[in-house]
Amino acid sequence: MGKRVLLIEDEPNIIEAIGFILARDGWQVATHSEGTAAIEAIRRETPDVVILDVMLPGRSGFDILSEMRADTGLAHLPVLMLTAKGQVKEREAAERAGADRFMTKPFSNAEVLASVRELGGVT
Amino acid sequence: MPRSALTGTRIRERRMALGLKQADLARTAGISPAYLNLIEHNRRNVSEALLARLAGALAADPAALAEGAESALFEGLREAAAGATAAETPPESDRIEEFVGRFPGWAALLGARQARLAQLERTVETLSDRMAHDPHLSDSLHEVLSAAASVRSTAAILAETEDIDPAWRARFHANIHADSERLAEAAEALVAYLDASAEGETGLSSPQEELEAWLAAKGFHLAALERANPPDPDTVIAGAPELATTAARKLALAHAARYRADALALPLEPFRAALAEHGPDPARLAQVFGVGLPVVFRRLAALPADAGGRPAGLVACDGAGAITFRRPTPGFALPRFGAACPLWPLYQALSRPMAPLRAVVEIAGRGGGRFLAYAFCQPSHPQGFDGPQVLDAWMLILPEPGPAQPGDLAVGSSCRVCPREACAARREPSFLAAPD
């Protein structure tokens, strides 16, 4: 397939599990585990889809997303946000910040895969 | 002139109104005339049984003679009325006395419901505050959800992937193992945390109330700690039914430690001797023993009941004005929640550390009385020059017999239920339009 996904998440075991699922589906998986250098990582890896965790060390996922949307080079990238809180407030904040999809932990592998495929335009 | 809130005085007034001699009333009630005289001059407390006999002999309602119970009830009813919303029919606040007199049962029920309501409101506020702002709770939940997400995702892979590489399988098993441990610990911590907090905050009383209930049961006098070789503080508080929560027990241990230090500085027998010689003059006693005023205040309020007379009231606050200790005395209402009257000598003293204050105060409203208040604020620097100044203010409350004088300081218990008009320090409107 050749599509690239960048997984920005600080939990190593979650990275391994999601990475495994996506790689099996044919994705090229890149990962980054903290917030301060996340924007650089996005520019460097040039993914087709970004999976972005809200709670990251150093910088919040909302912050990173807002910067992405303000950057002409990155604004077009589809983003799936992951969070451990599923309240309405968080969902609305994610939509306002410009997330395309929003998923709460614990998530189902099948749903993550389906969302990433949708966002990547894979049928 | 406000009517006296003191039982002895009311008994005397009633007796004289009926034209009865002390000797006759005493005989009817089964006590000596000398003892009745002490009672009438408020130098002895009256037991319920004796009060009932005296009331019978005086053809009066015991509740009408009793002090303290009434002022607390009136306070509670005023609070209930203050809480009435605009939409509800306003209560007839100028007829509280009539209501209590005609329907003592209903009045008591309403007062009790109000107390319970105030407690519940406070609990709810604390709980919802906690859910929104408690960082520990938030972190714990996040930890549980993250670990659960990892376990779920990894387990699904193992269950659903048919031809999984052995190395990957081993890796995922190890991951699940680690995350399950994490999940178990996080869940346990969460449960323990919620359990501990629930105990303290959704129980029937706050830890401070539990401490006060325990002390009240002991008459605020811890005889075990007066001895030359006292038992361990843990033993002193062990088995106390009032101290249900860990927080209350911690407060009680701290109180016991301070009590012991006070008892060492002012041993009971020499203190009582000095008291007999100099009277309850805190400054004099402090000088005689070479200790600070707060210790003397605390010892006066910790005297055993057999010393006779009315117990001294005592209230303490910290630098923020929050009340940290309460020994109530009948007729001087100490608010349970929220802030007290800013005119209390306690707060005047707080603003002038190290300057002792004495004032005769008159409590506003029905059931209020006249008192002699001593106040003193003790500053300390537990962390030395680099640390903050910590303030600890105390107010001793003694009864002051006699009619109101022009020099008396007019105070209340709390603005919302205080009937005083034209008070310079009023913080919020009272629901009462005119004084009682």
How are the secondary structure elements laid out?
The complex is a heterodimer of chains A (123) and B (436).
Chain A: E1 4-8, H1 12-24, E2 28-32, H2 38-45, E3 49-53, H3 61-70, E4 79-83, H4 88-97, E5 101-104, H5 109-120
Parallel strand pairs in A: 1-2, 1-3, 3-4, 4-5
Chain B: H1 7-18, H2 22-29, H3 33-40, H4 48-57, H5 62-65, H6 69-82, H7 96-102, H8 104-133, H9 135-160, H10 166-201, H11 207-217, H12 233-237, H13 246-265, H14 268-278, H15 282-289, H16 293-300, E1 313-318, E2 323-327, H17 345-350, E3 357-363, E4 370-380, E5 390-399, E6 409-411
Parallel strand pairs in B: 3-6
Antiparallel strand pairs in B: 1-2, 1-5, 3-4, 4-5
Helix pairs in contact in B: 2-3, 2-4, 6-8, 7-8, 9-10, 11-13, 13-16, 15-16
Please identify the structural class of chain A as seen in this structure: alpha/beta
Oligomer: heterodimer
| Beta-strand percent range of chain A | 15-25%
Q: Roughly how many Å apart are the termini of chain A?
A: 11 Å
Helix and strand element order of chain B: HHHHHHHHHHHHHHHHEEHEEEE
Please work out how many helical segments of chain B DSSP would assign: 17
- The low-confidence runs of chain A, each spanning 5 or more residues with pLDDT under 50, are none
Q: How many angstroms does the end-to-end distance of chain B come to?
A: 11 Å
- Secondary structure: helix percent of chain A: 40-55%
**CA gyration radius of chain A, whole angstroms:** 13 Å
What does the model show?
The complex is a heterodimer of chains A (123) and B (436). Chain A is of the alpha/beta class and 123 residues long. In chain A, helix 3 (61-70) links the parallel strand 3 (49-53) and strand 4 (79-83). Chain A has one domain (4-120): Rossmann fold (3-Layer(aba) Sandwich). Chain A has helices at 12-24, 38-45, 61-70, 88-97, 109-120; strands spanning 4-8, 28-32, 49-53, 79-83, 101-104. Chain A has a five-stranded parallel β-sheet with strand order 2-1-3-4-5, sandwiched between helices. The model of chain A has no long low-confidence stretch (mean pLDDT 92). Chain B has 436 residues and is α+β, with helices and mostly antiparallel strands. Among the domains of chain B are: 7-67, 434 Repressor (Amino-terminal Domain); 134-201. Chain B is 51% helix and 10% strand. Chain B has 17 helices and six strands. Chain B has helices at residues 7-18, 22-29, 33-40, 48-57, 62-65, 69-82, 96-102, 104-133, 135-160, 166-201, 207-217, 233-237, 246-265, 268-278, 282-289, 293-300, 345-350, and strands spanning 313-318, 323-327, 357-363, 370-380, 390-399, 409-411. In chain B, a hairpin with a 4-residue loop joins strand 1 (313-318) and strand 2. Chain B starts with 6 loop residues before the first helix and ends in a 25-residue tail after the last strand. Classes of the chains: A alpha/beta (123), B alpha+beta (436). The interface between A and B is medium-sized, with 19 and 21 residues.
